[in-house]
Amino acid sequence: MAIYIDILFLRELLVDGAVLLTTAWACHIRPKPWRVLAASVFGASYVVLMLFPQLSFLFTLGVKIGFSLIMIWITFGFHSLQRFIRTTLAFYAVNFVAAGAVLGLYYLFMQGSGEVWRTVTFSGGSVHAELKLGIFYFAAAFVIGIYVYRSVLSQKREKVLIGTHLADVTIRIGEAEYGCTGLIDTGNQLYDPLTRTPVMVMEASRWEAEIPAVWMKGIRDAQVDRLIAGQDTEPFPWQDRMRLVPFRGVNRGSQFMLAVKPDSVQIMREGQIFETSRVLIGLDGGKLTADGTYQAIIHPSMVQQPSQGSA
Known about the structure:
The chain folds into two domains: 5-119 and 133-163, no CATH class; 166-303, no CATH class.
């Protein structure tokens, strides 16, 4: 069987480079390009050296781990033991995900048990499985594995980031209290232009028991100006609390949002309590998030000064 060392070297060079760059992305590190290239050349050279029978010691576990640690050191340097360990774990995680994708796709596209048995050999009481991968197939499977890894990691980080900005919201209107989970959005700069009252946004569906169906339909159809004007509406106890707040949507012109004036809003986050009565609650006709993680968007000015007595 002929082995083309140049093709093998090039393939390993690209694979090692992709793994190192993905590791850097996962750890939020921006290594210098020459470091990534040097480490990739080092790793690809190791694979080529493994072809020589005289260097069979390169197959031992300790040597493999040593070479991988040197690759990580070349790429990222050594700043602290904790950071080096974290980078090493990320490097191995990327490798395992990519290898799993290659193996999974290899067996996924097999057309029968005959193909499986042709890859299995029995020798000396042990079983050996042989993978016959073309370079294009290998590259495609590897890229898919890396893409899946990055997608899953991105979603996890997004959820963690959102979780750090969630808070419990309690709204008081008259004698009633209403609770939900809110997201503190520092980009929310919505104010009532007349009174400069901050506006937090909440899903209108949370108020379906209190708001008449005609009003709910107007909110969902974005025809709230007709509601305030009293056209085709029925009165209800909160009608005097309703306000119209103009705002400009993304890639849209000026619009109006229906808002309700509560007696007070209490926000609890990380043991601290923030309470204010100077706020309007804008009613959104849709869902703020598909998975229901939060039902309100909290204005950042509402969590500036904790109430007295909070932890």
